[in-house]
Each structure stands twice: as structure tokens, then as C-alpha cells.
Design goal:
- There is one protein chain.
- This protein is mainly alpha-helical.
- It has one domain.
- It is 68% helix and 5% strand.
- The chain contains 14 helices and four strands.
- Strand 1 and strand 2 form a beta hairpin.
- Helix 2 runs antiparallel to helix 10.
Length: 344
């Protein structure tokens, strides 16, 4: 079984899941996990294919969340003592689009600055960017409401024939919306990976000096990957804001970046399905063990599961499954042996 066939099977199972599961809490958990899976997929483009570890990826997620929330609610921006710029509330689809664009612009800025350095310096710079973003959201009270959070964010909405623009309040509609956006994100990343840009990123990951020697513009391709990754993370953050309908500066917490990295590494970095499989497993495990053990043991089991996967499946779950399928003995029906007719 190839990775593409595995993706089709997984998509069919996820599409049919709401028909078999009526528990609203399970759908809420899967939808929340799906939002972070999209963010992890965007991180995989940098970590898995470009070989660049960004520990500040949650900054793009949070920027997308705040931009979409602010534009959908409307806000005042003071550029002088008595000169406010009043932005009225915008449609949700326009706010979502602006969140994707602005997050991509920040990705371009950070890429231009960050890819002048490599290794530990790049990691430190991205962490610093995430912390600065959180402090801005916390202290710019006139714009972001600071620790008091932005409340009553409008829900996501879609246009339906005969109904017009319809808000999505239920668990099932939001589940399918996140699934559709996840499929779109998967398709975009697949197109990038299998394009000239993707081949250049893999070459940079394997041997940057050799890639430079054959004329690959390192900074150009890395910045392009950062823009796509940041825009996608901003889109997932925007979905998160409209789904939970309240956000505060904690959306920039470092633990969310760690969660994305865990999804990528355990699922299989550098594979299209890795963040999805890792995200489903580590998005569901805490909810499953919550029904079995006490709260203080939940995260212990979570950590033990992660350690076991890293120890025994160092390349991730998806590569291990693909290798297992390839090494499995294939049985084919034997052709009948034609015997020579007896001579007369």
C-alpha cells in the first residue's frame, strides 16, 4: 500500500465517522485535533521537508487567530493620541482570508530575517518571535483586550444554495468543515512537495552545500516554504478562533508548538500522512485515558506512549507501516502447470 492509497482509506474513514459516532464530545475532540493537525502539517513542510526546526510556529497560528477574530468583530486602531482608525466588522470569510494573508506576510518577514542564520540560532530566533507575539497580544489591551480575551467571535459560515450564508454552530458541520480544509491543506502541501520547490527543499535538507553548488537559491526556497507554512498555520488559527469563539494570549503558549512537533515526529516527518496520523493518535489519547485513569496519570501515559514510539519507531508511524506493508509476504495464485499430453 502506498501513502496515497493510505490517505484515501483514512479520508473515507474520517468522512464516515460522524455517521457512526453520535457522541458530540468525541466530535468536538476530533475537530479540535483536526485544527492542530492542519497546523502540524504546515510545520512539517519546514521541519520534514526543509529540515528547519521552528519552535515559534505557534506565532503564526496565534496571529491568524487574532487577525480573523479582530476583523470579524471590528476594532479601533489608534495611530495618534486622538486619531482612531475604526474598522467595522467584516464577513467571516473575508476575515479568514485576511488572516491567511497577514500570517503569510509575517512568514515572509521572519523567513527573510531568520534564514540568515542556521541551527540553534534559527531555533532561538523563532522562539523569540513567538514570545514577542504573545507579549504584544497580552499588553496591547486597546486592540486585543489583553488577558480579558476576545469574546463572542462569530462562528464560521458557509454559503449554501437556497439558504445563503449559513453560520456553523453544530459539531457535525464544523467537523466536516475542518475535514475539508484539512484535505485542501494536504493537497497544497502535496503539490508543493512534488514540485520543483519541494525537490529543492529536500536537496537543501540532505546537503545544503551540495545544493548551493548546483545553483539552488537557498534563501529563496526556504522563504517560499516559510510563507506557505505560515499562511497555512494562520488559517488553522483562524478556524480555531471561530470554532471556540474566544481567544486570549495563551494561544501563543509554547506547549502548542511542542504539540505540533510531537505530531510531526511521531507520525513521521517528511511524509504527507505523518502529521495526520500522529495528530489523530496524540489528539485522542488524552481523551481516551481520561475515562480510565486519574488526571495525574494521564500525562504520564501520554509521555510513555510518545517515548515508546520514538524508541521503537524512530522514523515515525507512517514509515513503519509502509515498510511493514512492503516487507509482508505477497501471495499470488499459482498458474496451473500444463502437462504434456501422453504420446500415442
Amino acid at each position: 500500500m502506498t501513502e496515497s492509497r493510505m490517505a484515501v482509506v483514512l479520508l473515507a474513514l474520517l468522512a464516515l465517522l460522524p455517521l457512526a459516532v453520535s457522541n458530540q464530545y468525541i466530535l468536538f475532540t476530533l475537530t479540535s485535533a483536526g485544527i492542530f493537525i492542519i497546523a502540524a502539517m504546515s510545520l512539517n513542510l519546514l521541519l520534514g521537508y526543509a529540515g528547519q526546526l521552528s519552535l515559534g510556529h505557534v506565532a503564526f497560528f496565534g496571529i491568524g487567530a487574532y487577525v480573523s477574530a479582530l476583523f470579524s468583530l471590528g476594532f479601533e486602531f489608534y495611530y495618534g493620541a486622538d486619531n482612531p482608525l475604526i474598522v467595522p466588522a467584516q464577513p467571516v470569510w473575508l476575515a479568514f482570508t485576511l488572516a491567511v494573508i497577514i500570517a503569510g506576510v509575517f512568514g515572509w518577514i521572519i523567513g527573510k530575517l531568520a534564514f540568515r542564520v542556521r541551527g540553534a540560532y534559527f531555533v532561538i530566533l523563532t522562539i523569540g518571535f513567538a514570545q514577542v507575539s504573545r507579549m504584544v497580544a497580552l499588553n496591547w489591551v486597546s486592540l486585543t483586550n489583553g488577558p480579558m480575551a476576545l469574546n463572542n467571535i462569530p462562528p464560521l459560515s458557509i454559503w449554501l444554495p437556497g439558504y445563503g450564508v449559513t453560520p456553523l454552530y453544530g459539531r457535525v458541520p464544523n467537523y466536516y468543515l475542518v475535514l475539508i480544509v484539512g484535505v485542501l491543506a494536504y493537497w497544497i502541501i502535496a503539490r508543493v512537495v512534488h514540485s520543483r520547490v519541494g525537490r529543492a527543499l529536500v536537496a537543501l535538507r540532505e546537503n545544503e552545500s551540495l545544493a548551493r553548488s548546483v545553483g539552488i537559491k537557498v534563501t529563496r526556497y526556504l522563504v517560499a516554504a516559510t510563507v506557505v507554512s505560515a499562511a497555512m498555520a494562520g488559517g488553522s488559527g483562524a478556524i480555531y478562533a471561530h470554532y471556540v469563539r474566544v481567544i486570549d494570549p495563551d494561544v501563543f503558549l509554547f506547549i502548542y508548538t511542542v504539540t505540533m512537533v510531537i505530531m510531526v515526529m511521531t507520525g513521521g516527518k517528511g511524509t504527507l500522512l505523518g502529521p495526520i496520523v500522529g495528530g489523530l493518535i496524540f489528539g485522542i489519547i488524552p481523551e481516551l485515558v481520561r475515562q480510565i485513569v486519574r488526571p495525574e496519570l494521564q500525562w504520564i501515559l501520554y509521555g510513555v506512549a510518545m517515548i515508546l514510539i520514538v524508541m521503537y519507531l524512530p522514523k515515525g508511524i507512517v514509515p513503519a507501516l509502509l515498510n511493514l506493508w512492503k516487507s509482508a509476504p505477497k501471495t499470488f495464485p499459482q498458474k496451473p502447470v500444463l502437462k504434456d499430453s501422453p504420446s500415442t
